[in-house]
Each structure stands twice: as C-alpha cells, then as structure tokens.
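In the design runs reported in the main text, the only information available to the sequence generator was the tokenized backbone. The following block is the verbatim input for one such run; it is reproduced so that readers can re-run the procedure and compare outputs position by position.
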C-alpha cells in the first residue's frame, strides 16, 4: 500500500467513525471535522472546515490544548445544542513541533438519560418498598413462577411467618387450609376478592384479595393482601353492639302515640298508665307486632324515670353465651376475649331508668336465676365478681310466648314466672280489635308519606273492609308493612289507596312453600341447602305476617334459632 492509498483509507475510517473527531492547525483553523462531529454539533462539515474553531466551537477547548500542550482525557462537557459528550483532547506533534490539536468525543446524552431513569426507578422502588414495609395491610408478593418475593412486617405479625420461611419458597408455603390464590392468579391472570382461607402455623383465618402484576403486557407475578377475619368479626360485633345500644338508649313513644280506640286496647292502656309509677315489675304479654315495645316506651315516659335511660335488651337476639355478661356485666379477666378492664352490665347502665327485657321467654335457665335474684334482692353481681351492686332500674319485661307452657315443660322458672306475673298487661292482637284498622291505616299512611315523600291522603272504604277481612298474624307491624308496600306500587300522583293497590291477603290458611328450582350443575350441596333454608325462613315469616314466634313454631325451631337463621341469611 502506498502513502496515497493509506491516506484514503485513513480518511474513510475517520469519516465513518461513530466518535466525533475535530482537528485544528496551530492557528485554530479546523482542518478535520468528520460526519459524527457534524451530527453531534449540528454544524455542517462544509461550514466547519476552514472556519476558526473559536468561531464555531469554542467549547472544544482546543486552543487551550495548543497553548498548554497538555492532553486532557475523558472530559465531560455539553455543546450549545444540549448534546452531552465525553471528550479526549491532545496536541498534535510533527518532528517535535506542535502543529495543532485534535479532539475525539462520544455522545453520552442517551447514557445520561438512562442513568437518570435508573435513579428515578431506584427511587420509586425504594418508595414502594417503604410503603409495603410500613403498611398495616399484610402483603405478600410472588414472582411469575409462584415463588415468594416480598412479604411485609404486617404479614409476619398476622401469619407468624418470617422472610426466611417465605422468600424463594413456593406460593403454597403459608397455607394451612385452602389452595394457593397466588397460583390461581398466575394460572388465570385474573383477580380474586375476599377468598376465605387459613394461613400460617396458627391457622389464622383470613380473607385474601389477590391480583396479577402485569408489566410490559406480561404477567410478572401476583400480589396478595390478607385481612384478619377475627379482627373484622370483632369490629362487626362491636358495631352491632353499638347499634343495639344506640337503639336502646331512648324511649321515643308516649301513650299519645298508641293509636286505636277499641275497648280491648283502651283497657290495656289504662292498666299501663296506672302501673307507670308503681314500684313493680311489669310483664307485657301479647303476640309479636302488637305494640309491646311501644307500651314499654310509653310506660317509661309516663313514669318519674322519664328523664333517665331506657335500655332495651332483646334477650333472643343476644347469644346465650353473652347474655349474662351483657345483662349483669363482668369483672376484669372474667373470660377470654372480654374487655380487660371489665364492663358494666345493662342493669347498671340503666341506672335509675328503665330496663326493657324483650323476649324474656328466651333467657337461659341460669340467666333466669340471676334475674330472679336481681328482682328479689335489687342487686347484681358481675360475672366473675363477688361484690353486690345495687340495682335501681325498673324492669319491664315482654314476651309473646305462652310462659305457662314453658313453666310446665320446665324451661322457664316457676318462681320467676310468678314474680313477673304480679303486674301482667296484655296487649291485644289486631284480630281482636279490627275496628282500629281504619285509624291505624291513616296513622301509618301519614308516616309512610313522610318517609317516602308521597301524598296518599285517603284509603277507600272497600280497601279498609278488605284489610278488616284478613286474620293479621303479624299484627300492627304487618299492617304497617303492607301499607308501605302498597304505597310503593301506587303511581306518584295517586292519592287514594284502593283495594287493588293492596297485595293478595289470604283470609285464612297459608299456601305451602314452593321451592324454587336450584341449579344442580353449578351449586354445591351446601349452597343449595343454604338457599332452601333461607327460602323456608322467608316463607314462614311471610305466612306468619312477620310474626317471629309463629314463624319459629311453624318451622319447629326455637325463637333463638330463628333469630340466628335470620342473621345468617341477612333477613330483616
Ligand atoms: N297501637 C299502635 N299504634 C301505633 N303504632 C303501633 C301500635 N301498635 C304497634 N305499632 C307499631 O307496630 C310496630 C310493632 O310494634 P312493637 O315493636 O311495639 O311490637 P312488639 O309487640 O314489641 O313486637 P315483638 O314482640 O315482635 O317485639 C312498631 O312500628 C310500632 O310503632
């Protein structure tokens, strides 16, 4: 290869190089400016060649190199067009004489951008990690193969499992009962919510929400959030207790609110008014929905105790295991799961007010004994305690059960029965006072109008006589419900309730239960049995007009079991 061809090759290589190359002579005139240099600086090769470097690219610092004769390696700098470069600059020598300088530079803009992105990603990752670690929700993450990747301290607290037990281990490692939802997510790519399972060595009951982690359109893993069911249960129970307490702490009605002029009702009201200030326990008797609670409110409000509390306790709705501690309170450490500070019972809570014991026929035998003692001695002893606490509250009890039968069968204490029977007041059933239906209907229409924003002003005589022909197993409560339903079926402008607005009311015996068809293919036996049970309970309540005692009798179960079933199937 001769000198000439050598030069041609050199020129071609320089031109094709990815790095920018600029060379200047000892005066600073640009003598070499390759294509990459042009692309990076945005200056055309034509303009750059022969121009003085100070005019077009003073930032290259080549004049300094000529002056100092020093090489500078890997210097970072920026061109005016924003391109970042890394440059190496050197003086050019020929026969020991500096004849110029040159610079080779690389475009580092992309690398810088990537580095910034990496820093952002790193920051984001650290942020996410600290959110996960400090979250009160128990979180577990698995990778696309189903191996544990991340758990947080809340997860360890809930399950009792540590990172060493989970990280890198298969997704089912933490499961005590149930199948891995993480694996289900990885198999289906779908989310699942509120799946019950048990986890960890202590078989902790949890509800799990799981979702796929999708990155760049690919399934990369699964994230699960575990909720402690026992905590949820405790909260729900507490809410229920608070609700019940709120409902119980005021007596809304007075004798003025008891509608009806029938002789049967008038006698009961007279008796109740007379007993209001007598220092005796009252027993309100009568079918479900006749207005016993209304009477209890009215008696309290007519007594000297009206400015004190009215505490209502539905003895059938409180679980048997809790009734004694609810009524009489408990001392600290009385039983596991109890408030460690101990708790006042409802008798103490009622103080100088009234305690209304609804469904008293449902009290357990042992609670009956304690109640008798309270009525006789006028004092309570908290569960797990020894100290007697004076009871000043007045007791009004109510039942829709034939207590005499329960006494005979040995399920209700005879001595308690006689104690309660000193002042019994029977609230008549609606079928014994059908003449009150007219007045009651107008009273309820007014209430319903207010509640639903309607203006039904009249009920036609045929509609009233139709209502009077019915046997009203659910009493006044059923009448209120039927009128409410009828108003909903009426047009918004209709003002007169006619017979056709009312549902079909069977004059006498109920129709047999028609079971709906169940989908045997998709539902398991347990689901089917549950549905049938819910339907049977609903049907019994319907044909008994919402009268729970009758419905329980119809189903041949105790009233307490009926309450449990209603709660289970969320039947109001
Ligand atoms: N004479 C009445 N005047 C006005 N409203 C009444 C009358 N009797 C009952 N009610 C209403 O009917 C509904 C049922 O009454 P209440 O709850 O007092 O019945 P109850 O006999 O205590 O029923 P249960 O035994 O099922 O607890 C309530 O909404 C109540 O306000």
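Verbatim output:
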């Amino acid at each position: 290869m001769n000198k000439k061809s050598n030069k041609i090759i050199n020129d071609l290589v320089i031109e094709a190089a990815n790095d920018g190359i600029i060379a200047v002579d000892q005066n600073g005139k640009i003598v070499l400016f390759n294509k990459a240099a042009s692309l990076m600086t945005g200056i055309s090769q034509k303009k750059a060649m022969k121009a003085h470097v100070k005019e077009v690219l003073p930032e290259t610092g080549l004049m300094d190199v000529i002056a100092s004769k020093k090489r500078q390696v890997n210097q970072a700098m920026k061109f005016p067009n924003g391109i970042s470069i890394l440059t190496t600059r050197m003086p050019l020598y020929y026969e020991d004489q500096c004849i110029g300088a040159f610079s080779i530079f690389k475009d580092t803009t992309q690398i810088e951008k990537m580095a910034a992105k990496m820093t952002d990603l790193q920051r984001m990752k650290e942020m996410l990690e600290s959110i996960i670690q400090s979250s009160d929700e128990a979180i577990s993450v698995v990778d696309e193969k189903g191996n544990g990747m991340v758990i947080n301290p809340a997860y360890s607290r809930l399950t009792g499992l540590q990172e060493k037990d989970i990280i890198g281990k298969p997704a089912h490692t933490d499961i005590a009962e149930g199948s891995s939802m993480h694996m289900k997510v990885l198999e289906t790519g779908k989310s699942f919510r509120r799946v019950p399972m048990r986890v960890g060595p202590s078989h902790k009951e949890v509800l799990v929400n799981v979702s796929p982690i999708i990155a760049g359109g690919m399934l990369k893993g699964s994230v699960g959030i575990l909720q402690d069911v026992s905590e949820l249960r405790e909260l729900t129970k507490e809410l229920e207790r608070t609700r019940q307490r709120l409902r119980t702490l005021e007596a809304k009605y007075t004798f003025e609110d008891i509608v009806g002029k029938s002789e049967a009702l008038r006698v009961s009201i007279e008796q109740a008014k007379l007993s209001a200030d007598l220092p005796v326990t009252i027993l309100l008797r009568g079918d479900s929905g006749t207005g016993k609670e209304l009477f209890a409110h009215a008696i309290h409000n007519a007594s000297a105790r009206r400015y004190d509390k009215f505490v209502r306790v539905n003895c059938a709705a409180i679980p048997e295991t809790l009734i004694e501690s609810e009524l009489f309170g408990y001392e600290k450490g009385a039983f596991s799961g109890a408030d460690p500070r101990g708790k006042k019972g409802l008798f103490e809570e009622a103080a100088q007010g009234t305690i209304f014991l609804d469904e008293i026929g449902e009290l357990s035998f042992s609670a009956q004994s304690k109640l008798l003692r309270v009525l006789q001695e006028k004092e309570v002893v908290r569960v797990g305690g020894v100290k007697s606490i004076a009871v000043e509250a007045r007791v009004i009890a109510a039942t829709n059960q034939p207590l005499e039968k329960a006494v005979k069968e040995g399920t209700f204490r005879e001595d308690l029965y006689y104690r309660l029977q000193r002042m019994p007041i029977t609230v008549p059933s609606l079928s014994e006072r059908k003449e009150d239906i007219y007045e009651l209907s107008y009273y309820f229409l007014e209430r319903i109008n207010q509640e639903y924003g309607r203006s039904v002003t009249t009920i036609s005589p045929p509609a009233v006589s139709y209502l009077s022909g019915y046997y009203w197993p659910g009493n006044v409560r059923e009448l209120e419900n039927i009128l409410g339903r009828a108003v909903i079926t009426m047009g918004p402008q209709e003002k007169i309730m006619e017979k056709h607005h009312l549902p079909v009311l069977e004059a006498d015996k109920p129709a047999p239960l028609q079971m709906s068809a169940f989908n045997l293919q998709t539902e398991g036996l347990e689901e089917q049995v549950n549905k049938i049970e819910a339907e049977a309970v609903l049907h019994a309540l319907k044909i008994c007009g919402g009268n729970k005692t009758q419905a329980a009798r119809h189903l041949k179960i105790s009233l307490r079991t009926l309450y449990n079933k209603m709660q289970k199937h969320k039947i109001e």
